[in-house]
Write a structure and sequence with these properties.
Largest sheet: none
Structural class: mainly alpha
Radius of gyration: 21 Å
Distance between the termini: 40 Å
Order of helices and strands: HH
């Protein structure tokens, strides 16, 4: 039929991927703000406090991005597996 939904076509099932990405964005915001403020307020040298805060934000971004990238690869590989299990009848 022409009116048939294309939800089952490859690459269209991204609802879970988008929701997971939003969760990782929220995780980044919470982690970056928390660690950034901690780095800022615990630095004894006030001249270096801003640089330490920016470094903490950058490291938080890299950590959460790497975790998201790994999760996204695992999630997408489960959406369309390349190898299917072979079930033998006994």
């Amino acid at each position: 039929k022409k009116g048939k939904s294309c939800k089952n076509k490859m690459g269209i099932k991204e609802d879970g991927l988008l929701m997971g990405s939003y969760i990782f964005i929220g995780t980044f915001v919470v982690v970056a703000l928390t660690i950034g403020q901690y780095a800022y307020w615990t630095t004894k040298d006030r001249a270096a406090a801003g640089a330490n805060q920016q470094l903490a934000w950058g490291m938080s971004f890299m950590a959460v991005f790497c975790m998201w990238l790994f999760w996204a690869c695992v999630y997408m590989h489960q959406m369309y597996p390349l190898v299917s299990p072979i079930i033998e009848a006994h």
